Every structure is written in C-alpha cells, then in structure tokens.
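User: For my dataset I need records formatted as: sequence, then structure tokens, nothing else. Please produce one.
Assistant:
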Amino acid sequence: MTQSATPAATASLAEGQMAPDFTLPRDGGTLVTLSGLRPARVLLVTYGADGTPTCTNQVMDINAHLADFAAAGVTVLGMSKDSVAKHDKFVAKMGIGFALLSDKDGHVMEDWGAFGEKLFFGKLVQGVLRTTFLIDGTGRIERIWKVDKVKGHAAEVLAAL
C-alpha cells in the first residue's frame, strides 16, 4: 500500500456493512439512487469543492482512469457539497466523464463519515474528509480509504480491485 491512502473505517461506516442508500442530483440535474446502480460495483469519491487545486487533482486523477474502472465493472461517482450548477460548469470546463453528485446540505457525507473535524492550515475546522468507498454489487462496503494524498490514489484503488 502506498502513502497516498490507507484503508480506514469512518466513524459512521465500516467495511462489510451495507452502504446507506441515498438519492442525490448529479451534474445535469438528474437524480442518482445508489441502490439503483446495482448490481454494478460503485466507487464513491468524496471531495471538498469543484475547482480548488487539490480537489481538481483528485477528480482528474480518477477521471484519467475511467476506462480502467469501467473495464473492472466499476461505476464511479464523485460527491461534494457543490450545487448542480457548479458541477455543470466544472464538468464542462474539465471534461469529467463521471457523475458528480450534489450533497448540498452534507447529510449524506455526514451519514457516511465523510464530513467532520479536520486540520486545515493548522486550524481545526468542519469540512469534507476525502474518503473513497468501494461498494460491491449487493450494496456492501468492500473498502474504505481515507485519502491523505490524492496523487496516485486512483492507481492504488485500481490495484486493490
């Protein structure tokens, strides 16, 4: 395992548990329901905000490996608190090929343990905790990664598949 991410259980969820279902709007405005994607495996990637440097690198790293994820039978979803309109602009500007979900109120990320206290420039703040979840075709969480460094994370996830 590289230093870019380590499997970790969040405060709310653990590997082997059923993934809580949700329905959220995606870029373009259509709704995505997690259970509606079964029996596909799903990679859910949480990130802070569209267009910020580290988050853009995180999303683009995943985007660069979309064909590999598809070949492995994995549907990729990104999730942030950004609005659908902001996602639309980000997708158009960056050429992102996977759905970006809008959890505007942050309730899903909170339920999944991907929102909480973190250090930001030495200060303790509330925010999105970069987390990647791999959900199997039955809806169980296969793996959870707490993402400390975004570079190389997509390749690490692919190696775990």
